[in-house]
Amino acid sequence: PIPVILDVDPGVDDALAIILALQCKDLDVRGITACFGNRQLWRTLRNALQLVELMGRDIPVAKGASEPLCKPLREYDGPDDHLIHGLEGLGPVVLPAPTHHEVELPAPDFIAELLRQSDEPITLIPVGPLTNIARFVVAYPELLSKVRAIHLMGGAAVGGNVTPYVEANIYSDPEAAATVFACGVPIVMCGLDATLQCLIYPDEEEALIQGEHTHLAQLAHDMLSVYEKGEEFPGSALHDSLAVASVFCPDIITTKDCYVDICLTPGEHRGQTVVDLEGRTGRAPNVKVALSADRLKMLDLLRASLNGPF
Ligand code: BDR
Ligand code: CA
Asked: Any idea where the Inosine/uridine-preferring nucleoside hydrolase domain is (predicted)?
């Protein structure tokens, strides 16, 4: 199996991504780090601990950043009735309080420790703001050679979901994204171009619990019941699952090698992943940008992960 570290901000789609990663026999999840993002750090960390326990797994979870590298221009938490992932982060689902604690090391040091202990390079899968990964990159440049690749959910070649140009994870910490995108490790960017093709439609959500079904299928159904619902959403995007799937099932996305820069200028472009799709800058590509994804394959993988180890 491919050794990986997940960096998450659960988050409904993060929760589905965690389940996918833990059930997939082709992945060896060495650790999970939590970041602020969809909700505050105390909630995302708790949710990560709860999910690992729910899955009956003994995977260490580390506490990461509670805020971006630089002062945010806006607060993240909107009014509590407009929260896309629900108040607690997992939609309406309330899981039992975790009985385990996070590891002592903070996320960047924990990532470093896992890399040091490993005989083989490890793939990082960040699916929240890139703060933890950026802190690791800055603190441990000597360990970057042990990172096989970074498969991240974030950004977009075209469009955004916070401003017309900016995706939420990069929006949440543009300076961190700039650090990570320039770090020299091979990057696969599963951004909105691809993840918005991985929708699960309401009838498919209902089908998860038709007939005999597992407690994980029920959990997924319940979490999805409030996530990305309403007129602006024809279905719920499995954003973070796609980044996980791209590691063990690379054919699920089509990619283009591009130079990608992060816009740090104040304004509605701040946090934009500026993708040189046509090679006009002449700069060497630093990112494999996912431009499309296989929705039906993603759904198959989701269903498999809800049924048991696969
Ligand atoms: C990303 O933002 C979060 O809401 C999701 O968990 C996903 O990682 C999509 O823009
Ligand atoms: Ca996320």
From this structure: 4-298
